[in-house]
Amino acid sequence: MDTRTPTTTHLTDDQRLDWLRLIRSDNVGPRTFRSLINHFGSARTALQRLPDLARRSGAARPGRICSEEGAHAELAASKRLGVSLLAPGEAGYPPRLATLDDAPPLLGVRGALDVLMRPMIAVVGSRNASGAGLKFGGTLARDLGEAGFVIASGLARGIDQAVHRASLEGGTVAVLAGGHDKIYPQEHEDLLATIIETGGAAISEMPLGHVPRARDFPRRNRLISGVALGVVVVEAAHRSGSLITARIAAEQGREVFAVPGSPLDPRAAGTNDLIKQGATPTTEASDVINAVEPIMGRPIELREPGEEPMASEPEASDRARIIDLLGPAPILLDDLIRMAATSPTIVRTVLLELELAGRLERHGGGLVSLI
Questions:
Q1: Strand, coil or helix: what is 326?
Q2: Which of 143, 208, 245, 311 is the most interior residue, by most CB within 10 Å?
Q3: Which residue has the higher pLDDT, 317 or 102?
Q4: Could you tell me if 89 and 22 are in contact, meaning their C-beta atoms sit under 8 angstroms apart?
Q5: Partners of 367 in the beta sheet?
Q6: Where in the chain is the domain with CATH 1.10.10.10?
Q7: Residue 338, H or E segment
Q8: pTM score, two decimals?
Q9: DSSP strand E in the chain: where?
Q10: CATH for 109-296?
């Protein structure tokens, strides 16, 4: 069983430096990065134009642009730690993650690159897990590993650490919320070292030195589901982080699985609700395998961000009309383009300007709003 996809990208050293500078600059997230590359054709040109783009949409002052010295320092520090900064399409960048619109332009990868190219199943669950949940999670991860799947999880307490330990032999990937040198929880530094030593890997989109904060974990969760064919939730109370992962997985088009539990145990309330909402009930590895086998043979098409730069620039009247149509209530991009009565290129350019000025928020499902 193998769904490896031929690599389609290889950055030069200069390009990698430019990409790192761009993604580390203020108001540039993964989607903005992709838009900038699409618009200008290269990160170097985008870096030169950032101040002007922000100014057009009313930014009081240009956002911070990552310096060459700062990017060189991060690349050197990453190399000392054994971390490679990889672009979508390069060997070691998980193929399914590369297909997402908000895939990290540069992913920090540490460990065995080949394990990241194999089919993955994410297994997540409660930090305050029951003994039965820990046992089932470990058994499921081990059985999936024997069937050829790599197990991805978040290195958290409870279910995450149990499935990592159970899948060391078959291959496991830890998805980090902080930088590679800021492991959370700290007590799992030894577990991560064991994962790396036994042929597994760790990934993060955060720079070295970044200490994870509460808002970083949902962002991390999209990577957990993004690398995988499907996500299994073993235990989850109402309003738990694992349910966020399940929701993101569904938005990404991933399969969602849930382990049923006792209605008397609050740690099963979230998983039981997922089943009511259409998640696949899971009591053994075959439930997962049978569901993902039909999609194993689908080709994964990696999209190189922007091969052709866009040439059109918006007129002042176009810009004013598009901004007038925006407000605090999210609106679909397709609706905005229709109502603006101009080309999609012009609308996307204005949105890019607003985003770089810190005035635009992007929501799931192609929705945007003014901040």
A1: coil
A2: 245
A3: 102
A4: no
A5: 332, 363
A6: 316-370
A7: helix 333-340
A8: 0.82
A9: 83-86, 107-111, 120-124, 150-153, 172-175, 201-204, 230-233, 255-258, 280-281, 331-332, 360-363, 367-370
A10: 3.40.50.450
